[in-house]
Amino acid sequence: MNTIASTHTTQSRKPQKARKTSRTLINLLVDLAIFVAFLVAMDPRLTGIAVHEWLSIAFGAAIITHLLLHWDWLLATTKRFFGRLTAQARINYILNFLFFIAMTLVMFTGIMISEAALPLFGVTMEHSGPWRSLHTLSADATVIILGLHVALHWKWIVNSWTRYVWRPAVGMITRKPVASATASKEVNA
């Protein structure tokens, strides 16, 4: 009889849907990876010039991923830029545009002064002073713009971090093990 009851219970269960990863969580993870890569890449003395260059190239791919994740916002804000738009959205758009320009300059000038990545493919460029100066200047501007970008999005960062990292971590630490129903039946039998 137990076999029939357990079979019936198993058959009446609905298949569980696969959990969809939150878009906010994806944005948080991509942004966190970009931020960490940026911090590491900003000091070539920390990692060496080869890691600095390759990490910067990967950073460029991460920025493209970030732009694609926010493409709808980018298009909608571009269309409404001179129309109806909140001040914060307009500031965010301008800051993102400046960040994109500064990062493009950093990447381009970095390629122009490459000592490890491009020579690996047989491409060598002159390491002239103006390219290096522009690389340093645009990298410094990028740090300032990134700081403003983080400040503008600080509430989202804290809320997302709390929801997807802090609360689950605290829950895992403080959660008491729950005895299964079958284990308690076996003890009582």
Description:
The chain has helices spanning 2-12, 23-41, 44-47, 49-69, 71-80, 87-112, 117-120, 129-152, 154-174, 181-188. It has 189 residues and is mainly α. The chain has one domain (24-162). Helix 2 runs antiparallel to helix 4. The radius of gyration is 25 Å and the shape is globular. It starts with a helix and ends with a helix. Mean pLDDT is 80; it is low at 1-10 and 180-185.
Summarize the entry for a quick read.
The protein has helices spanning 2-12, 23-41, 44-47, 49-69, 71-80, 87-112, 117-120, 129-152, 154-174, 181-188. With 189 residues, the chain is mostly helical.
Structural class: mainly alpha
Largest sheet: none
Rg, please?
A: 25 Å
Counting DSSP E segments of at least 2 residues, the number of strands comes to: 0
Sheet-strand content, in percent, reads under 5%
Helix content: over 70%
Give the tally of structural domains: 1
Contiguous low-pLDDT stretches (5 residues minimum) are 1-10, 180-185
- How many H/I helices? 10
**Element-level helix/strand string:** HHHHHHHHHH
- Give the terminus-to-terminus CA distance: 18 Å
Q: What would the principal axes of the Cα set say about the shape?
A: globular
Question: How would you state the average pLDDT, rounded?
Answer: 80
